[in-house]
Amino acid sequence: MTTTTHHWPQRTAHLLNLLLMLVLAGTGFYIHRPLVGGLMGLARYAHIVAAFVLLVNLAWRIYYAFLGQYKDAREFKPQLQALPRQIRYYLFLSNHEVKQGLYNPLQRLAYLGVIILLILQGILGFALGWPQGIMGFLANGLGLAEIRALHYLFTWFFITFVIIHLYLVLTETPQAFLEMFWGERRERNKTSAATRSSTTTSK
Ligand code: HEM
Ligand code: HEM
């Protein structure tokens, strides 16, 4: 018996997200402050294309979470009551992690937060790129300079999330790193069965 914790549709969407975020952050910083000249047109074009692909990927991922073959929306359901105990665990005040299902209560909040932040970042991006378009009311209400500053601030939120995300994955569940990228199937043994619940397939 083997266990698959992250199925290929989820893994592909995650990898695509990661690559697109690299392109968006790279081109975004260039648009913010071009260190070498002559690439602004390309940077803007790549930023917009990557942004569209990211938003389509996000929409598809949300759809898949609810209606896909390996739907996993329940893994993201907030567990606010268990949150203080999980925070105690992260602060080294308790040895017991609270984990029901694939993600602990803090992971669930962080992932939901990132999804909401991506949607907000997209809305700000549309207001920036098309101030007369569908998000024009934002450009009129807040002002383009403010929207630009918020879009830039959110970029730093994403960078902070990824640094903490990487640190926690590598220190807490290094095996999840392999599962997320290469879809490695772990042998079902006492430890994995006790710490993670997931779809079980026979080989
Ligand atoms: C999700 C959809 C997104 C859309 C539609 C979008 C759109 C835009 C647009 C239209 C601009 C202005 C470009 C110009 O001045 O010509 C911009 C700038 C920028 N974007 Fe995005 N973007 C998106 C996501 C992201 C993400 C995820 C990041 C970071 C990882 C990011 C980082 C930046 C940065 C740093 C700038 C420069 C802001 C400044 O000038 O201070 N964007 N974006
Ligand atoms: C080098 C970069 C990254 C690595 C190594 C990484 C690794 C991982 C791993 C191992 C998991 C599964 C955690 C577990 O099972 O306990 C995960 C989940 C997740 N990661 Fe990342 N990640 C990276 C970048 C990103 C980025 C850039 C985003 C978002 C913009 C992101 C968003 C998520 C989300 C939302 C989940 C929940 C699972 C899912 O989406 O199916 N990650 N990541």
Please explain how this structure is put together.
The chain has a single domain, classed as Transmembrane di-heme cytochromes, Chain C (Fumarate Reductase Cytochrome B subunit, Up-down Bundle), CATH 1.20.950.20. The chain has 203 residues and is mainly alpha-helical. The radius of gyration is 19 Å and the shape is globular. Helix 1 packs across helix 7, helix 4 crosses helix 5 and helix 6 crosses helix 7. It has a 3-stranded antiparallel beta sheet with strand order 2-1-3, with no helix packed on it. 12% of the residues are buried. 67% of the residues lie in helices and 4% in strands. The chain contains 8 helices and 3 strands, in the order E-H-H-H-H-H-H-H-E-H-E. The longest helix is centred in the last third of the chain and has 29 residues. Bound molecules: protoporphyrin IX containing FE (HEM) (2 copies). One protoporphyrin IX containing FE binds next to helix 1, helix 2, helix 4 and helix 6.
Q: How many independent structural domains? A: 1
Q: What is the CATH topology? A: Fumarate Reductase Cytochrome B subunit
Q: State mean pLDDT (0 to 100 scale).
A: 88
Major sheet summary line: 3 strands, antiparallel
Bound molecules: protoporphyrin IX containing FE
Strand % is: under 5%
CATH second-level architecture: Up-down Bundle
Number of strands: 3
Kindly provide the name of the CATH class. Answer: Mainly Alpha
CATH superfamily: Transmembrane di-heme cytochromes, Chain C
Could you give the distance between the termini? 6 Å
Strand order of the largest sheet: 2-1-3
SS content category:
mainly alpha
SSE topology string: EHHHHHHHEHE
